[in-house]
From TrEMBL:
This is Chemosensory protein 8. It comes from Adelphocoris suturalis. Pfam families: OS-D. InterPro entries: A10/PebIII, OS_D_A10/PebIII_sf. It comes from the Eukaryota.
Amino acid sequence: MDYKLSVMLVMGVLACAWAADMYTDQYDNIDIEEILTNERLYKKYFDCIIGNGKCTPDGTELKETIPDALKTACAKCNDKQKAGVEKVLRHLLTKKAEDYKILEAKFDPEGVYRKKYEAQKKLAEEGKPIVL
């Protein structure tokens, strides 16, 4: 096999392997601010995530991603996704505390992640940046 072709093949395989280690960026341009400030949209996404409503394709992706993102502290998130997570966490912690408790009961019933994320909760309450 030609050397250039071999290098291209290896690079392609590595790119695929790297991409598999990241969450899809297909929904990165969704307006999170609009969802958080529009109660009707917010409720649809929230109901989807907790299993009480129909999900849009991006809602399904989010619902399926949350357990792994919690477990890995968003290690497979790109920078835009991390910024979105921070925005959503801040909103939940400061404006939707009851919803945060519902999500915590669903995704962390054993309290495994609770201690890990207590520092983020304190930062959000103080209006400081949340570190993922």
